[in-house]
Amino acid sequence: MKVLVVGAGAVGQVWAYGLHRGGAEVHFLVRPYQLAQFQRFPMRLHALKSYITFSRNAATKTVTLELPSNHFHAFSSNESIELPESLKAQSFDVILLTVTAASVLAHGNWLAPLGKLLVPETGVLVDPSPRDDNGETVVKAIGIPRDRLVFGDLPLGSWQGPLKGERFEAIPKEAYEVAAFSTLSDGTSVPNPNPVIIYVLFTPQNVSGYPGVGAAVAKDFAAIMTKGGVKCTSGVASEYQPVSIEITSAERALVPAMLIGLEAAGWKFSKVRGEILTLMLAAFKESLELSAKHKGKKPGLLSQILVQSWLWIALLWIVSNLRIVAFDLEPFLEYHFTKVGSQTALFAERYQRIQGEENVKAFTNLVNAHARIKSS
Questions:
Q1: Which helix (H) or strand (E) holds 125?
Q2: Non-local CB neighbours of 175 within 8 Å, separated by 6+ positions
Q3: Rg (Cα) of the chain, in Å, rounded?
Q4: DSSP 52
Q5: 212 φ, ψ to 5°?
């Protein structure tokens, strides 16, 4: 299997590592400024055994991912949508998209040229990121039929270590010394600019495709990933029936609401109190009620439990003070969701537009409070 990974962030590197170790021929399409560093220096990754503190994470080791320099490609500039010459004569069984929704929509239709790189009839796009339009944007942009879209889940935590401001280390200091320097052809030893990517699989990764080409490729893709040490399962999706975008956006509003509240609190669990907590839980309640309404149902018991302030105060205190999680969760959330903050903002705007501002007043109040606090 020949795979082009679009994006070389924490997710792209982890999935590429599993594919490479599993026997796939892996290529990367990266940003122009990243090209030289990936061609000259190995990527570095460190897998935790578990996200639980008392697991044997101290026994884990940093590994490297080294690919031939001609397996890295880049557009001529951030604004360019023309394929680099190094890719024009190639074809791929899989294009793995590991970029945010904001990146997909930026700089015009830069995905369209990628469709030309897929093997005719059997090449598929693997898009593991959740998108509130059921993948319609990427399918249309890249120019393939829906049955050649493979989608999935990313129950994965990954970040550049060490995290800024972390109170305790997820991996030993010596783990950062692996491949910290590289020797050039002239014998000069230079520092490796590629950070150590620390990651943990919360559960196996998953890919699913529709009956036929998509399901067959998903099965092979998952088997290669698992063989390479990144556990992955596959499934066969039922015949495509578009889920109401009103339902999907309402269900997915819980996470952005929580992130907006946390950022307003300076990413400190102890400060999610008072106005912030009240507005956040009101937004939770509103999205759960909207989802139930669109489905023609009443909110269930779980919906009532999730909006209890005492529950969130207790959970946030436990996570912050008892160090149950094997990495410092506050700086991780700040690192990850500040990095993809444009995606959260994009979702918030779409959510308000899809549902109608008159139906998401609680969410809008939370967004406004966040803006006020950030500007003060």
A1: strand 124-127
A2: 46, 60, 61, 62, 196
A3: 22
A4: B
A5: 110, -135
pLDDT at 52: 85
CB atoms within 10 A of CB 125: 27
Q: Which tokens go with 231?
A: 């556990």
Strand partners, 3: 26, 94
- In the structure encoding, which two tokens stand for residue 237, read together? 């999706």
So what's the pLDDT on residue 57? 65
- DSSP secondary structure of 258-319: HHHHHHHTTT-GGG--HHHHHHHHHHHHHHHHHHHHHTT----HHHHHHT-HHHHHHHHHHH
Distance CA 93, CA 214 (A): 11
Give the residues across from 4 on adjacent strands. 27, 95
- pLDDT the model gives residue 310: 93
- Its pTM stands at 0.88
Q: What is the pLDDT of residue 78?
A: 67
Would you tell me how many other CB atoms lie within 10 Å of the CB of residue 349?
11
Angle in degrees, CA 232, 233, 237, rounded to 5: 135
Task: Quote the pLDDT of residue 243.
Answer: 47
Q: How far is CA 25 from CA 28, 29, 70, 197, 281, in A?
A: 10, 14, 12, 21, 47
> Cβ atoms within 10 A of the Cβ of 300, count?
11
Q: What's the CA gap between 347 and 337, in Å, rounded? A: 13
Distance, in Å, from the CA atom of 176 to the CA atom of 44, rounded to the nearest integer, reads 9
Vertex 129 angle, CA 45 and 149, to 5°: 115
Question: What pLDDT score was predicted for residue 163?
Answer: 93
| Rounded mean pLDDT for each run of 10 residues along the chain, 376 residues in total | 94 97 97 92 94 74 96 82 86 91 62 88 83 68 86 88 91 94 85 96 91 93 97 80 56 83 93 94 91 83 86 90 89 83 76 85 93 88
Q: At residue 201, what are phi and psi to the nearest 5 degrees?
A: -90, 115
Structure tokens at 200: 């943990």
Count of CB atoms situated within 10 Å of the CB of 232 = 25
For residues 32, 33, 39, 41, the Cα torsion angle rounded to the nearest 10 degrees is -160
